[in-house]
Amino acid sequence: NAGVTQTPKFRVLKTGQSMTLLCAQDMNHEYMYWYRQDPGMGLRLIHYSVGEGTTAKGEVPDGYNVSRLKKQNFLLGLESAAPSQTSVYFCASNLLPTDTQYFGPGTRLTVL
Amino acid sequence: DAKTTQPPSMDCAEGRAANLPCNHSTISGNEYVYWYRQIHSQGPQYIIHGLKNNETNEMASLIITEDRKSSTLILPHAPLRDTAVYYCIVRVVAGTASKLTFGTGTRLQVTL
Q1: Nearest chain A Cα to B43, which residue?
Q2: A9-68 residue pLDDT tens
Q3: Does A56 contact B at CB distance below 8 Å?
Q4: CA dihedral defined by B85, B90, B93, B99, rounded to 10 degrees?
Q5: What DSSP state is assigned to residue A30?
Q6: CB atoms A42 and B87 under 8 Å
Q7: Please, which residues have CB within 8 angstroms of residue B14's CB and are 6 or more apart in sequence?
Q8: To the nearest whole angstrom, how far is the Cα of B1 from the nearest Cα of chain A?
């Protein structure tokens, strides 16, 4: 099992550009999450999904959209990137809401 | 949501036990205490969790006080590779998803 993988690992964008971050898990997990981590801070939840075709807002959802068309994939989109979105993005998943969350390696995004 | 308070940093000599404290004085009766760690900006890694009894696994021990207002993570014989940021988290269940609210954690430095 590869666990939770994230694509890409690094990306640099200009203000106003768009991009999509891909999270994939091969553990048949129902629940998936997107977090962001700014320097010196803990992780903050952006959006999450409780199953294929469903998404919900987390703590800091503004400026992001998500989709869960397939159970194994959870996409995070930035329609018009802003410098404030410079951060490290982590994806996580678990089978049940009470289970341990397994995290991916992260995507380091810089918006100039 | 119950908040947690941790010291910002701690040092520990290699091979000695590291005791990381956490205060969660507003914890509810059905909330668990979770510990994760993050090594060098990698994705967070689950360590251990508990409700009210002490817990032990291959990585660590968790001691929760009888009133559940504080806990201590114990890393026995800490090797250098245990240098990381350790997060104490009280699990919040929102809807059917389990959100993890990360604080700033304790930066543990294991030294020679």
Answers
A1: A105
A2: 999 999 999 999 999 999 999 999 999 999 888 899 999 999 999 999 999 999 999 999
A3: yes
A4: -10
A5: S
A6: yes
A7: B78, B79, B80, B110, B111, B112
A8: 13
